[in-house]
Amino acid sequence: MGKKSSAGWRQRTNARAGKKPGAASSAASVPPSDTPPEEAGLREPGFPIVGIGASAGGLEACSQLFRELPADPGMAFVLVQHLDPAHESALPELIARTSRIRVHQAKDGTQVEPNHLYVIPPNTDLTILRGRLQLVPREKVHGQYMPIDKFFRSLAQDQGSRAIGVILSGTASDGTLGIEAIKAEGGIVFAQDEQSAKYPGMPRSAIATGCVDLILSPDGIAKELTRIGHHPYIAQPKALLTPEPLPAAGESLTKIFQMLRVATGVDFTYYKSTTIHRRIQRRMAVNRVDSLDDYVRHLRQTPAEVQKLYYELLVTVTSFFRDPEAFETLKQHAFPSLMKQRAPEEPLRIWVPGCSTGEEAYSLAICLLECLGDYAASTPIQIFATDVSEVALDKARAGLFVQNIALDVSPERLRRFFVKVEHGYQISKAIRDLCIFAKQDLAKDPPFSKLDLVSCRNVLIYFGPLLHKKIIPVFHYALKSDGFLLLGSSETIAPFGELFEPVDKKHKLYSKHATATRPPIDFAAGRYLLEEPRTTELAKRPGEETWSDADVQREADRIVLGQYAPAGVLVNAGLEIVQFRGDTSPYLSPAPGRASFNLFKMAREGLLAELRTAISQAKKKDTTVIKEGVSVKSRGELNEVNVKVVPVKVPLSAEPYLLVLFEKVANGSRRTRPGRAPETAVTQKDVDRRIPQLEQELLATKEYLQATIEEQEATNEELKSANEEILSSNEELQTTNEELQTAKEELQSTTKS
Questions:
Q1: Most buried of 609, 632, 696, 738, CB within 10 angstroms?
Q2: What pLDDT score does 620 carry?
Q3: Quick one: pLDDT at residue 717?
């Protein structure tokens, strides 16, 4: 799933109580929450609050933005600019020269009002609570100072979907974690385009997260802010935490679910309706669409929007050590218990469903190593981290994170478990090797088994009741008799309290009740665990388990296809298997070492060369390719098989797929005998038959090698072009530096006068 909850980091940023916002021990992200705020008036202001983050080059961008805003845009603005802590700032006066709205330097306790701009003072940390600005002296931090992240996080926590984030010109990556928090709470995110930004580092880092909704010039941002502030999604009496159901949503939602399922393979029908409504309304606001029917038409006309909505619903936002107390609970209760009477060679197995970009899995690995101490080197550890999003998994496998994670990871942990790289940190190889990342849809794919711990935090909050009831018994099945289950603070095991014993009720740590009787579980690969909806009304799903005629027909089709159709697999552009069809064991088998669904790694002896050639030709020519009489060795038996590779074009999806089918040739097998018999039984006929097969494999290898050489040459040309662009950009940067120096001198002269 890849969805995480805001409950994990909702420490209250109250300067008067002496709490330090964004401290290294606090968790990082602010994923969306479907629970109302603790205080009824927490998000009372009836207008959006726009947080603006800027650094080098930000003065010019801010001046352009506020020059285009009307005097009454109907929203409040808070500017967080990187300032010299040792000098007074003239920033409010400079912006006021071009702004039509009132400009103030922020003061502690100020209640923000619409049509006003509040500018952070020097040497100050700024947050917001209940619509009031909270100022404390700037705290000393190790590494780079991140005031924008700090304010944006508090803004997301305080205002929810009313929060709007804007990233303007600046170096480095401040604001990157903050916009993830705003996006996760349902807010809107803008970034200045690189063409208009004097220093594109901050906008570029923000855009790379995938959380930016609109990329515009400063004047374009001003115009879009004016429009979006009056959209029904934003213009509500209160923040849209639990939005009203979309009018006439039933039929339109069914169409949206169908488009998403066709394009991505994920069925959102049984996800929590409030979350679905809120995320769709947010996309409608971004796309300037007011009615759901118009949005359905927009989805049909714009396949890229289907993908954007898909990732919107996944909300792949997470953080390191979210809820630090939960990790301490694992150290105190779970890990010591799991290590008792464990054989030295027995691995410690952990599953993290909905792992998103990997922070949760890596945090567990670090926490476990810290707990094991000197025993870590001798304890085998396997952490299976799964998610439905390939994009999130790719980021997780790389283990690269922006330098802003220093807000959530202590200097000691950064030193021990991370490597400093350009623009950030990379998790150390020793930690990466403990984690296995794989694609999995928790709603329909089989689970892992014989697990010691399942950490599924802030995933179930996005599932509706029926899906929730299907998954809790799955966790019970997956765990060993002495295993543990860790949930998010807003999640519960109900109505299956008899399956687990509470270990720490506050932090939702449970132990498996081994003698409990759980409901039957269906692990059929590729099948959804739920019956198809029989009504277009999202709020009126029947709970009975009866099947319709269409369900019976689909089940019959599944049986026929499984028994009589050729075996095969469906692979994506990266040749990762996304679906098995029939019995593929004679042709594919898991490779030793790290778990992988890569087709080439799983191909049995004799199949790889022809398979590579067929796939290369099918990709290049976009047509079906057939290889006949391919010899494949399986379980001591040599079989002849016909291989067919068929390009698959999925509507509303830009990703190419390939269907690889295997059809055994009748009377095309030669069984060997045990012992030394095969060596003495070889005849001249066998030799004559084997030579053309070897020649065919050699030809296939040569064809594949030639295709690889051509691809490498094309890549080299692209690298040359990229190098030229870098050189050109360097020249532009030198010119920009000269212009900045001139502007600095002019500004100093203006200030003195």
A1: 632
A2: 84
A3: 55
What are the tokens at 30?
């602010």
CB count within 10 Å of CB 653 equals 17
* DSSP letter for each residue of 295-355: HHHHHHH-HHHHHHHHHHHH-B---TTSSHHHHHHIIIIIHHHHHTT--TTPPEEEEEES-
DSSP state of 199: S
Prediction pTM value: 0.62
Q: Which of 50-64, 291-305, 313-327, 700-714 is the least confident region?
A: 700-714
Q: What is the pLDDT of residue 36?
A: 32
**Domain 45-228 and domain 324-512 have a common topology:** yes
Backbone phi, psi, residue 222, to 5°: -60, -45
Q: For residue 104, which of 113, 92, 95 has the smallest C-alpha distance?
A: 92
CATH, range 551-708: 3.30.450.20
**Among 5, 6, 26, 82, which one carries the catalytic annotation?**
82
| Protein fold of 324-512 | Rossmann fold (3.40.50)
Specify the higher pLDDT residue, 542 or 96: 96
Which residue shows structure tokens 């922006």? 402
Catalytic residue among 55, 161, 169, 616: 55
Active-site residue, 82 included: yes
Q: In this structure, what DSSP letter does residue 408 have?
A: T
pLDDT by residue (tens digit) across 685-727? Answer: 666 666 776 776 677 677 667 767 766 765 665 565 455 446 4
Would the pLDDT of 622 be above 60?
yes
* Domain boundaries, given as residue ranges, for the chain: 45-228, 256-261+269-314, 324-512, 551-708
Given a contact cutoff of 8 angstroms between Cβ atoms, the answer to whether 129 and 158 are in contact is yes
Q: Which of 213, 284, 199, 276 is nearest to 245 (CA)?
A: 276
230 is annotated as an active-site residue: no
